[in-house]
């Protein structure tokens, strides 16, 4: 168990280092000099040079990388070129919207997908199965931002149940904040729930055909007892992988959905930064999201070990 | 185990009797034809502005209505189909063209340093959600259809590399591959002659699925302004234009949305159908 | 008392009749052997008694378990019956247990489902049952997981959960087929003992006549979904009344005729000298590299011209690893291998084609041995890759044709795909592929193990005939002693990577010297011995 953990931890660190290196190098390929961009077209060359050294841009590449990483480790992402405030502050303001939105959507997706997938698998080829599979076929095909627009059209414009966008802030109370996140979360969750339900179904169907299910029935368990006690936990193993992957899809999807609902999250921040060529912000948001994905992959590995005793072996 | 089908004439009959495969194929073929037709004919010039006829609903003249500049929506959707399909086709092509050889190579050199490097590289790319990759690329090179293709293509490489490697690894242990080695055949030759034909089914099925994902990704990129640039119409940007006008002209949002959904649905149905056809034992959902 | 009676059982699956007219009866404390080849319907009979037939099945007839007519029971009552009145043991112990639950949990579950016992009581019963099947507490605590256990140990767990409630009927579907002979003997002993002590009726399903001959009180022989003959075991075997019984009996004890004598004077075809094969083991701790696992340890032997040599041993003894090394598919960590006096190694680009063409191979799995996308013509001619001036066109067709005729197929088979052939025919094609470039030595790795006895007898005849006619030597690798005995001149016994004994086949089997060979020979079920033994 400890060996497994240590090995996963080591590969986690290596992935983090590799990802940071890739992001750093890609961002270094950007044509143009941030300092002259910040100072405007008619800036005094001496002033630009001063700014360059102030920003640490004149140091050699490896040193700049190390300096950047050292900053990251202390939570220092650098200073935004356009806002002239620490990027960490900008991110902190936005993350309190983006992260809850992602988790909200992930919860919804799981809550919808599990029962749907289980019912479809348990009653294979029944009407319930066909309905679930048909619905998921559409769910997978619908772009989430289009779905978001349709939700706005129906629930905000026609029914006037929800506001069409914006975020009141957590100060306005948990209820109203969650309400503002509900339509975005649904728009994000339903397409993902379709994928998850299909995976759940196929994984469960595979497990139901395993030999040990026949053993369970031969012991006298009814069909549903065998499903709950023996099939579900085994079927969960591939499903966990997909949940982990969905976290990254939802994080990235959130960037777009935030734009539909005018939510001031990381997505809005990154698009503003791109138009303003505030690359230090882009770099920081990208590395933050990539780190989140890598860490979640690590957590999924830990979850495997919890579900599957074969990974916890070697006690001799 | 990759169970192969009998390569005889009855395969066509089996395919025709498979409902979702036929429907999926027809839907996909419809959009491909629409895209091809747009090269020579569209009802109206999709770039021609006409403020007089702006925001009109569907009518006999303008089947899908007009947008806020008075452009004909149907013509724009036709041209948009061309963009979507071209971007997805090239992106999946990049994925297959680079990913499959990498995967086959890694499998043939299982456990070697090269294998390890290829696989870790894959993991690394997987840590970047496609959209994030696109954002980085656009941040560096600026928005455009080509950069969208590159971003989606890069994302497809590890998908096919992993699939090819995994399937190839199980084939390398099969006796017929050992028999080929006893017949003195080298790794490259075995990969092409014995491994590739036996994983082709899997690659085709995954290819259709990645194609549909690429269409969705292209739409998302265009929607946030990182895809094809004006004046070239694209489904994603049509939706972006529709967003502010959604209460005024919902048809502007509905028709491009339907176009995306039906194309993706067609591809997915075709993928599922092909999978069932190749492997009737594994009627599983999309993974 | 009749524990189980079946009469007039018919089963159809999606309209196809798989069983017609099955009549069987089993008394408490007795063993009924149900014997048949694959497709004879023996497993379907078992699943009918369990009422776990596959979807789309319809059955009719009369099945009574401990007097209860199954037709009158609803699903809830059937669930009560399964596990309480009838227990079942399956063929594949590696997959029969749930990998994510402990063994104690799984045995206790039988108890919990049927009795109101608390978890604690159920676990106590599970403990007793595991002790009973030979898994003592100190080495097999309740919280172990199946993946920690060997195949034989897992089969014991499966038996423990089947007998936890002392059912009146125990059904064992090929319970020892997936196990090594020595483990098989232990499991069969355990079953026999349980039947006598617990007064259960055991329905033992097997393809192996020798297994039932030594164990069953009565026997039923199935063919194509019907019982062709049944009665007390000794009587059935003594009379051999039905032609199919006779055919099955003679195929099981079949020894092909061979006429050729090995030429001892010439250079050995194959010389294996102090060969070592090691594997890197997976790391268990991060910074400690485990010592390599030595799968083949200092093995030496020779195969003379025209000699057939057997290599026997249980799974994991290293025989397949040795085979791969001999075929130069893997590198060696020590020693060397010579073919016709030339060094044969996987180093560099492998042996030169000319040398490689002197040795060919036939594998066990008739389904995995061929690329499903190529026609037989292309499959069989693949080894011509090794020949510098490979035949083409009409000459190639003629060679393929000759190889196919040689193994008893026809020239029209060359245009077919492999899925159009049965398992036995596929092994013939594999042999044709090995023959076509006229090698001096063919390695047969469990080449007949996946075949039914009657097919196996035919393939053995074919092999014997070919070696006489074409001046071939075989290295015949198998876990099945009786097959090796039938076809080889000399035998090597392998254990834990080493050859522990070698010598003339007959003398080794008749008078084994090494203790391991003695165990192996004693554990192998033998028809002759079982029938010669006095009635119990």
What Rg of chain A is obtained from the alpha carbons, in whole angstroms? 24 Å
The ordered string of helix (H) and strand (E) elements of chain A is HHHHHHHHHHHH
- Overall shape of chain B: it is elongated
Kindly identify the CATH topology of chain B.
MetI-like fold
Strand content of chain A: under 5%
CATH architecture classification of chain B: Orthogonal Bundle
Q: Total number of β-strand segments of chain A?
A: 0
Count of strand segments of chain B: 0
Q: What can you tell me about this protein's structure?
A:
The complex is a heterotrimer of chains A (316), B (287) and C (536). With 316 residues, chain A is mainly alpha-helical. In chain A, 77% of the residues lie in helices and 0% in strands. Chain B is built from ten helices and no strands. Chain B starts with 9 loop residues before the first helix and ends in a 9-residue tail after the last helix. Chain C is globular. Chain C has 536 residues and is α/β, with parallel strands linked by helices. The mean pLDDT of chain C is 89. A six-stranded mixed sheet of chain C has the order 6-7-8-3-9-10, with helices on both faces. Chain C has a six-stranded mixed sheet with strand order 16-17-18-13-19-20, sandwiched between helices. Chain C starts with a strand and ends with a helix. Chains A and B meet through helix 1, helix 6, helix 7, helix 8 and helix 10 of A and helix 4, helix 5, helix 8, helix 9 and helix 10 of B.
Structure described in brief:
The complex is a heterotrimer of chains A (316), B (287) and C (536). With 316 residues, chain A is mainly alpha-helical. In chain A, 77% of the residues lie in helices and 0% in strands.
Give me some keywords for this one.
heterotrimer, B: 287 residues, mainly alpha, MetI-like fold, 10 helices, disordered N terminus, C: 536 residues, alpha/beta, 6-stranded mixed sheet, 20 strands
């Amino acid at each position: 168990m400890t060996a497994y953990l240590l090995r996963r931890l080591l590969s986690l660190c290596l992935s983090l280092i590799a990802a940071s290196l890739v992001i750093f190098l890609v961002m270094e390929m950007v044509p143009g000099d941030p300092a002259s961009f910040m100072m405007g077209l008619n800036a005094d060359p001496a002033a630009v040079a001063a700014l360059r050294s102030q920003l640490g841009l004149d140091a050699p590449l490896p040193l700049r990388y190390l300096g950047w990483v050292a900053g990251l480790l202390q939570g220092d992402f650098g200073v935004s070129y356009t806002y002239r405030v620490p990027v960490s502050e900008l991110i902190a303001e936005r993350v309190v919207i983006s992260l809850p939105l992602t988790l909200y959507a992930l919860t919804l997706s799981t809550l919808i997908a599990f029962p749907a997938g289980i019912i479809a698998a348990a009653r294979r080829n029944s009407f319930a199965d066909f309905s679930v599979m048909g619905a998921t076929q559409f769910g997978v095909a619908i772009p989430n931002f289009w779905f978001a627009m349709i939700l706005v059209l129906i629930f905000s414009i026609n029914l006037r149940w929800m506001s069409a966008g914006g975020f009141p802030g957590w100060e306005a109370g948990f209820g109203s904040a969650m309400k503002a996140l509900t339509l975005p979360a649904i728009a994000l969750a339903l397409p993902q729930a379709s994928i998850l339900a299909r995976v759940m179904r196929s994984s469960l169907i595979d497990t139901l055909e395993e030999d040990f299910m026949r053993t369970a029935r031969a012991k006298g368990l009814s069909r549903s007892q065998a499903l709950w006690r023996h099939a579900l936990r085994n079927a969960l193993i591939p499903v966990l992988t997909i949940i982990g992957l969905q976290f990254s899809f939802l994080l990235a999807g959130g960037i777009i959905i935030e734009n539909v609902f005018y939510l001031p999250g990381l997505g809005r921040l990154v698009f503003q930064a791109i138009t303003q060529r505030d690359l230090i912000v882009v770099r920081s948001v990208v590395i933050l999201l990539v780190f989140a994905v890598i860490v979640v992959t690590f957590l999924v590995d830990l979850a495997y070990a919890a579900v599957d005793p074969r990974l916890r072996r070697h006690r001799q | 185990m990759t169970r192969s089908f009998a390569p005889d004439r009855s395969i066509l009959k089996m395919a025709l009797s498979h409902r979702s495969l036929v429907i999926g194929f027809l839907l996909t073929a419809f959009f491909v034809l629409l895209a091809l037709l747009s090269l020579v004919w569209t009802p109206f010039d999709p770039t021609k502005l006409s403020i007089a006829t702006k925001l009109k609903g569907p009518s006999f003249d303008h089947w899908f209505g007009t947008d806020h500049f008075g452009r004909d929506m149907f013509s724009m959707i036709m041209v948009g189909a061309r963009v979507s399909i071209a971007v997805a086709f090239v992106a999946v092509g990049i994925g297959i063209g680079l990913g499959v050889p990498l995967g086959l190579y890694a499998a043939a050199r299982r456990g070697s340093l090269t294998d390890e490097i290829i696989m870790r590289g894959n993991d690394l790319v997987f840590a970047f959600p496609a959209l994030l990759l696109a954002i980085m690329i656009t941040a560096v090179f600026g928005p455009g259809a080509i950069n969208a293709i590159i971003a989606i293509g890069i994302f497809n490489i590890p998908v096919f590399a992993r699939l090819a490697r995994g399937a190839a690894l199980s084939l390398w242990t099969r006796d017929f591959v050992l028999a080929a080695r006893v017949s003195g055949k080298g790794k490259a030759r075995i990969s092409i002659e014995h491994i590739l034909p036996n994983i082709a089914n899997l690659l085709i099925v995954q290819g259709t699925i990645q194609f549909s994902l690429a269409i969705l990704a292209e739409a998302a990129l265009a929607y946030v302004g990182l895809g094809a640039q004006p004046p070239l119409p694209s489904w994603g940007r049509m939706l972006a234009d529709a967003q502010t006008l959604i209460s005024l002209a919902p048809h502007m949002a509905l028709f491009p949305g339907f176009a995306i959904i039906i194309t993706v649905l067609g591809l997915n149905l075709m993928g599922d159908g092909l999978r069932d056809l190749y492997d009737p034992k594994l009627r599983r959902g999309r993974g | 008392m009749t524990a189980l009676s079946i009469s007039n059982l018919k089963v159809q699956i999606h309209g196809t009749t798989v069983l017609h007219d099955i009549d069987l009866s089993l008394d408490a404390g007795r063993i009924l052997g149900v014997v048949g080849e694959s497709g004879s319907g023996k497993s379907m009979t078992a699943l009918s008694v369990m009422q776990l037939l596959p979807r789309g099945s319809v059955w009719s007839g009369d099945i009574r378990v401990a007097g209860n007519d199954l037709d009158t029971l609803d699903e809830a009552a059937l669930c009560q019956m399964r596990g309480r009145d009838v227990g079942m043991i399956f063929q594949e112990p590696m997959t029969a247990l749930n990998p994510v639950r402990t063994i104690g949990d799984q045995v206790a579950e039988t108890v919990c489902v049927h009795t109101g016992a608390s978890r604690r009581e159920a676990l106590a019963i599970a403990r007793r049952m595991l002790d009973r099947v030979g898994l003592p507490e100190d080495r097999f605590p309740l919280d172990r997981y199946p993946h920690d256990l060997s195949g034989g140990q897992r089969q014991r767990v499966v038996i423990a959960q089947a007998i936890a409630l002392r059912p009146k009927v125990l059904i064992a579907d090929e319970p020892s087929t997936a196990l090594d002979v020595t483990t098989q003997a232990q499991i069969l002993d355990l079953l026999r003992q349980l039947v006598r002590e617990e007064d259960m009726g055991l329905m033992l399903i097997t393809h192996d006549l020798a297994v039932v001959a030594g164990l069953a009180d009565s026997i039923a022989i199935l063919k194509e979904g019907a019982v062709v003959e049944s009665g007390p075991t000794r009587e059935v075997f003594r009379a051999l009344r039905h032609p199919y019984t006779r055919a099955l009996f003679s195929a099981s004890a079949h020894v092909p005729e061979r006429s050729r004598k090995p030429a001892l004077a010439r250079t050995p075809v194959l010389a294996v000298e102090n060969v070592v094969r090691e594997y890197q083991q997976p790391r268990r701790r991060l910074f400690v590299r485990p010592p390599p696992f030595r799968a083949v340890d200092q093995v030496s032997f020779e195969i003379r011209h025209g000699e057939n040599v057997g290599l026997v041993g249980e799974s994991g003894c290293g025989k397949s690893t040795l085979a791969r090394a001999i075929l130069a598919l893997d590198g060696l960590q020590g020693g060397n291998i010579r073919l016709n006096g030339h060094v044969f190694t996987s180093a560099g680009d492998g042996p030169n084609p000319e040398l490689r063409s002197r040795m060919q191979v036939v594998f066990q799995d008739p389904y995995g041995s061929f690329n499903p996308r190529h026609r037989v013509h292309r499959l069989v001619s693949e080894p011509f890759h090794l020949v510098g001036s490979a035949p083409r066109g009409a000459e190639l067709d003629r060679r393929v044709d000759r190889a196919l005729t040689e193994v008893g197929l026809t020239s029209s088979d060359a245009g077919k795909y492999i899925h159009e052939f049965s398992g036995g025919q596929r092994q013939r094609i594999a042999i044709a592929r090995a023959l076509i470039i006229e090698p001096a030595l063919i390695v047969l790795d469990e080449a007949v193990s996946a075949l039914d006895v009657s097919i196996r007898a035919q393939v053995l005849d074919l092999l014997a005939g070919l070696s006489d006619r074409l001046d071939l030597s075989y290295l015949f690798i198998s876990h099945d002693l009786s097959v090796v005995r039938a076809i080889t001149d000399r035998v090597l016994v392998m254990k834990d990577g080493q050859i522990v004994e070698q010598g003339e086949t007959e003398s080794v089997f008749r008078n084994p010297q090494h203790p391991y060979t003695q165990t192996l020979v004693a554990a192998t079920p033998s028809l002759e011995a079982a029938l010669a033994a006095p009635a119990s």
